[in-house]
Specification:
It is a single chain. This protein is an all-alpha fold. The chain has one domain. About 70% of the residues lie in helices and about 0% in strands. The protein has 5 helices and no strands. Helix 2 packs antiparallel against helix 3 and helix 4 runs antiparallel to helix 5. The protein starts with a helix and ends in an 8-residue tail after the last helix.
């Protein structure tokens, strides 16, 4: 039952962000730390690339915590705390980027890339809400927290691919 409630809350956060983003009138002149237009896109691409690297570190720490990291042995006591602190930092890093995207562009479905990016952004914060609640609950299946963390890492990758990589690749996604 708890898992269902947490899942519904996560969906509620994602749907709420989607609704706000669809109803909001985009303001393309909004700045991010004083940067607007293409300068803001460049800054968001840099911040997103840092977030991708930190998400990779989070996956490695989680694998170590769950003793699934080959040759690593048992994690020292500070590793779970480091995972939480770094996770909070990752979340804090994504907030200005997400707020800028929401205010400047809203949720758009104009192309496949933009739709995937917009929806992945909404799902990211829903999944983050679920993971925070899962961390607080000790009576859930053992697989729930790693699945939520894995979903977060995948969503960071999707968001980076559909934005920063697109920017770094001359406003095109790499051809398959």
């Amino acid at each position: 039952m708890r898992l269902t409630v947490i899942g519904l809350l996560a969906v509620g956060v994602a749907v709420g962000l989607y609704a706000v983003g669809r109803l909001h009138t985009p303001n393309y002149t909004i700045s991010l730390f004083g940067q607007a237009g293409l300068d803001a896109v460049a800054l968001k691409s840099t911040l997103s690339s840092i977030a991708l690297g930190v998400a990779g570190l989070q996956v490695l720490l989680a694998l170590w915590i769950y003793r699934k990291l080959p040759l690593a042995g048992s994690p020292p006591r500070p590793v779970p705390l480091a995972h939480r602190v770094i996770g909070f930092g990752l979340f804090a890093l994504t907030v200005p980027v997400a707020v800028h995207c929401l205010l400047a562009y809203g949720v758009q479905l104009t192309s496949l890339r933009v739709a995937v990016h917009s929806l992945a952004g909404c799902f990211f914060y829903g999944a983050f809400a679920a993971k925070v609640l899962l961390v607080q609950s000790r009576r859930l299946p053992g697989w729930a927290l790693p699945v939520a963390g894995g979903i977060l890492a995948i969503l960071v990758g999707v968001l980076w691919y559909t934005s920063a990589l697109w920017y770094y690749n001359g406003f095109h996604l790499p051809a398959p």
